[in-house]
Automatic annotation (TrEMBL):
Organism: Methylacidimicrobium tartarophylax
One of the GO BP terms on file: thiamine diphosphate biosynthetic process
Assembly notes: Homotetramer. Forms heterodimers with either ThiH or ThiS.
Function (record text): Catalyzes the rearrangement of 1-deoxy-D-xylulose 5-phosphate (DXP) to produce the thiazole phosphate moiety of thiamine. Sulfur is provided by the thiocarboxylate moiety of the carrier protein ThiS. In vitro, sulfur can be provided by H(2)S.
Gene3D superfamilies xrefs: Aldolase class I
Class of enzymatic activity (EC top level): transferase
Domain Thiazole synthase ThiG positions: 12-257
Keywords tagged on the record: Cytoplasm, Schiff base, Thiamine biosynthesis, Transferase
Family: Belongs to the ThiG family.
Molecular function as annotated in GO: thiazole synthase activity
Transmembrane parts of this sequence: none
Compartmental location: Cytoplasm
Protein name as it appears in the record: Thiazole synthase
Length: 262
């Protein structure tokens, strides 16, 4: 890796990371397999659904937190399952009271068919949690107006979806994502619908600061191998974005001279 590539830190709310790939912890066949895939991904930020994390007395092999080293990963509690702002705020407070970091992936979806984030409740919850000192990573539809409103509230990052959760359909919202990236003065992390390494690379190429992947890796035939592929795709996409695209001429341009043949 060249010095230019290596000098590309990823800051969020005053904390700096090297990896721009975030990983969710749902749907893995086992906690042990999840831990192996996280290692291969090179991630430094892992999201954990608070409804899945065991806060009480359970056997270590049953507790997902036993497989996540807080010295190695920033564990970001996730309010997945919250149907409104009140539930999301309560979950975030419970995580903090249990000793988890005061970071939260704010996720509110009131219906179970499409799991689309509720913009009104998300904004309300973000206002409360930011006032209480949480670093909020706000999961949203690819809505440029909402993204700016959340930025004004003081969230640490916005996380617009590429397509619905778990759909693995890629960047169906690409046009809106490009507007969000253009306008944002905080990190933009594409979350949901990223089903292949090529999707992650495309998100990074349009200027996203990071990508969160869960389902595609967790349900893969070989989660560890795919985690490595996503790691490389995010790195490649970021390098491509920083270098910029070459000019696109209107007609063909030969790569070899068409004269002086033998």
């Amino acid at each position: 890796m060249s010095p230019k590539e290596n000098s590309d830190p990823f800051p969020i709310a005053g904390r700096t990371f090297s990896s721009r790939l975030l990983i969710g912890t749902g749907k893995f066949g086992s906690h042990a397999l999840m831990a192996e895939a996280l290692e291969e991904s090179g991630t430094e930020i892992v999201t954990v659904a608070l409804r899945r994390a065991e806060m009480g007395e359970v056997r270590p092999e049953e507790n997902i937190l036993s497989y996540l080293d807080p010295e190695r990963y920033l564990l970001v509690p996730n309010t997945s399952g919250a149907a409104n702002a009140e539930e999301a705020v309560r979950l975030a407070r419970l995580g903090a009271a249990a000793g988890m970091p005061r970071w939260v992936k704010l996720e509110i979806h009131p219906e179970s068919r499409y799991l689309l984030p509720d913009p009104v409740e998300t904004l309300l919850a973000a206002e409360v949690l930011v006032r209480e000192g949480f670093v909020v990573l706000a999961y949203i539809n690819a809505d440029p107006v909402l993204a700016k409103r959340l930025e004004e509230v003081g969230v640490g990052a916005v996380m617009p979806l590429g397509s619905p959760i778990g759909s693995m359909r890629g960047l169906e919202t690409r046009a809106q994502l490009e507007i969000i990236v253009e306008q944002a003065e905080i990190p933009v992390i594409v979350d949901a619908g990223v089903g292949a390494p090529s999707h992650a690379a495309a998100a990074m190429e349009i200027g996203a600061d990071g990508v969160l992947v869960n389902t595609a890796i967790a349900v893969a035939e070989d989660p560890c191998a795919l985690a490595r592929a996503f790691r490389m795709a995010v790195e490649a996409g970021r390098i491509a974005y920083r270098l910029g695209r070459s000019p696109r001429p209107a007609q063909a341009v030969p790569t070899s001279p068409l004269t002086a043949f033998l």
